Amino acid sequence: MIKKNTERNKTIRLTEKEENSYVARSIKLSAHNKGVNLENKVIWQDTFRALNYIPDNFADLIVVDPPYNLTKLFGKNIFRQTDAETYKKWLDKWLAKLGRILKSEGSIYICSDWQSSLLIPEVACKYFIVQNRISWEREKGRAASDNWKNCLEDIWFFTKSNKYTFNMEAVKVQKKVVAPYRDVNGKPKDWADENGKKIRYTAPSNIWTDITVPFWSMAENTDHPTQKPEKLIAKLILASSNIGDMVFDPFLGSGTTAVTAKKLQRRYLGIERERKYVALALKRLETADYDKTIQGYENGIFKSRNYKLTS
Ligand SMILES: C[S@@+](CC[C@H](N)C(=O)[O-])C[C@H]1O[C@@H](n2cnc3c(N)ncnc32)[C@H](O)[C@@H]1O
Asked: Is residue 54 part of a domain?
């Protein structure tokens, strides 16, 4: 029997009028408005210019999802793939500025594909201490006849010092128990019975296989070509910041870092140079005033991938 697809396309889109009205809520930084309140704002500007006006020791957490070293169209601008040395120089141009902006006990995460990933620590270790590399599995990838299908992305985890926030309890992973051992009194050993299911909560590893990249039937989906899932960013924010902390993203895109920070009661600041993405970010932030849901994260628990589709 063919199952009828009744799901609605939920992709967030804007009319020209809406785009104009959202963009009007963004700010631009210059020598003339030094000291302007940067809390919970979206900056519509080239990041290399705007970063000069962000104060020292501003951010508790920085999440960076930069253009990877691939040719890609972002709105009206193309980022062009280049040789490794030129890409490293480009990384250095903004990483040097982030070193000044991150607080002494702060953390910074940098997203990459496997090729750009080879270059990131070479530059970032000039300013930060490397703590880990997370690899997460993208569900989809383009098949190749002469190579392995590319379904992996990395997120590098750096800190400014060896004193930093890490809330392990907030990002524990729910697992089904295969071997439900009991102690001599018959009590479950390290697991619990939840609604008839045997469940254990374990420390999260640096391999994540529970992530779904936004697609048309997800409420967070936009037309941004490389939008990150809120669930992915939620893990970084929950682990490496506390309620009320400042979360900063210098390549904001459609706003995922800011939106997730807002939903998790953090303060935020983001920079993006494409008008359309600035507007999308501001629309998503407005929706987050009343809708705090993060797909795949419920009641403090990260659910398995596509759990709604499979349960
Ligand atoms: C990989 S995307 C970020 C996607 C974002 N994490 C999201 O979930 O939507 C990188 C973004 O950086 C923006 N960008 C590239 N160069 C920039 C620059 N010099 N200044 C500001 N934004 C820039 C691009 O327009 C693009 O939206």
From this structure: yes
